[in-house]
């Protein structure tokens, strides 16, 4: 399922594990064949501009939608795409950036695994005169942020509104009557996860939720560690009525809902996963938060407009992507219709007409502010409206 989504949520350097905590990266030239990206693809739309995309996967729930959305946009805009897919460590990502620059791309969109990857990407792109943007990422380190944002070839970044989403998850659960939580925090070594932790903590305080116990999600994404912690909670806290989890990827949510069956304890989780509709129907899932794949579409649009000579800002752009909240099997089914395993329906929502509004040449009012306004429309209600429901 989402075998690497914790990567999407992490800004720490990855070494041995999926969410490692070591710092520093080796030069891209030291890349070995064992770490090479698993998939390199070209989408030739006959355009005179090419944008490279560095992403961790195209087969999990998030990556597959990102892949579909970017390709839909590229076709609508007549821009070629070079995909570098599968890099799960810093060195591989930097090698992918180097490969794309050597291949003559005009722009690069990347989901960097660490601020140091962003820093080195910036240095390479500035030297080569290649525009670049970040998807699913802010820049946490102040020194690196100042360096990167001063680069005239840095277009901007899109990243999730994690604090707001985490707090809203707690509110939805509390409004449904769940007040005693076992909380799964993501690694405190990951700077970006501080927003989620703060959202959980502020939400519990604001909405009267009692934190009965807590655990830290395994840095390796090992679902067995999560299950062992929750089993201990079930034994020790008979009044616990929900598991509030910062991550449900890599099989953790699937395993958790199986464990919670017939216990009366609900799962409230960040990350969509396989089997959500069944989990809602059997009463083990209260809230699932995810659906942030369009983030990459808007980062791609930022980069494309700069490459096309119609940048959306004189400076860099910083936009936030909202989440989708699913609270019932019916909502889940609707969402899965357009963003599930059959991605042929993505174009029903993100039509060519809609995609063309993300191009400055077609939409004179498009700038950093109006782009954020477009992104803010994203919700289940917006999806239904797009379909005329």
Automatic annotation (TrEMBL):
Domain Periplasmic binding protein: 51-299
Record flagged with keyword Signal: yes
Coiled coil segments of this chain: none
SUPFAM superfamilies xrefs: Periplasmic binding protein-like I
Main location: other
Record carries keyword Signal: yes
Tree of life domain: Bacteria
Signal peptide span: 1-28
Gene3D superfamilies: 3.40.50.2300
UniProt entry keywords in alphabetical sequence: Signal
Family matches, as InterPro entries: Bact_Solute-Bind_Prot2, Peripla_BP_I, SBP_2_dom
Cellular compartments annotated: Cell envelope
Family label: Belongs to the bacterial solute-binding protein 2 family.
Descriptive protein name: Substrate-binding domain-containing protein
């Amino acid at each position: 399922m989402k075998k690497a989504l914790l990567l999407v949520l992490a800004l720490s350097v990855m070494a041995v594990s999926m969410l490692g905590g070591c710092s520093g990266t080796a030069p891209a030239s030291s890349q070995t064949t064992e770490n090479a990206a698993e998939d390199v693809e070209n989408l030739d739309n006959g355009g005179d501009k090419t944008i490279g995309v560095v992403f961790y996967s195209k087969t999990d729930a998030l990556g597959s939608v990102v892949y579909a959305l970017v390709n839909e946009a590229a076709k609508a805009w007549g821009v070629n795409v070079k995909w570098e897919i599968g890099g799960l460590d810093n060195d591989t990502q930097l090698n992918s950036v180097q490969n794309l620059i050597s291949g003559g791309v005009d722009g690069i969109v990347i989901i960097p695994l660490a601020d140091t990857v962003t820093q080195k990407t910036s240095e390479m792109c500035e030297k080569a005169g290649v525009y670049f943007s970040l998807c699913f990422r802010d820049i946490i380190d102040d020194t690196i942020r100042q360096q990167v944002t001063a680069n005239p070839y840095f277009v901007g970044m899109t990243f999730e509104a994690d604090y707001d989403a985490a707090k809203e998850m707690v509110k939805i659960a509390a409004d449904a009557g769940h007040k005693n939580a076992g909380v799964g925090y993501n690694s405190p070594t990951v700077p970006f996860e501080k927003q989620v932790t703060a959202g959980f903590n502020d939400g519990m305080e604001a909405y009267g939720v009692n934190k009965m116990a807590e655990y830290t999600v395994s840095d390796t994404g090992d679902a067995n560690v999560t299950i062992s912690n929750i089993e201990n909670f079930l034994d020790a806290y008979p009044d616990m009525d929900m598991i509030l989890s910062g991550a449900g990827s890599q099989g953790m949510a699937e395993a958790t809902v199986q464990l919670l069956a017939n216990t009366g304890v609900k799962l409230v989780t960040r990350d969509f996963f396989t089997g959500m509709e069944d989990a809602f129907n059997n009463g083990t899932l209260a809230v699932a938060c995810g659906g942030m794949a369009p983030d990459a579409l808007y980062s791609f649009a930022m980069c494309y407009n700069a490459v096309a000579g119609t940048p959306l800002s004189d400076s860099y752009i910083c936009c936030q992507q909202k989440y989708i909240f699913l609270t019932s099997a019916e909502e889940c089914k609707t969402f899965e219709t357009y963003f599930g395993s059959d991605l042929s329906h993505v174009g029903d929502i993100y039509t060519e007409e809609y995609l063309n509004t993300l191009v400055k040449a077609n939409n004179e009012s498009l700038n950093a502010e109006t782009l954020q306004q477009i992104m803010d429309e994203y919700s289940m209600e917006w999806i239904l409206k797009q379909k005329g429901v």
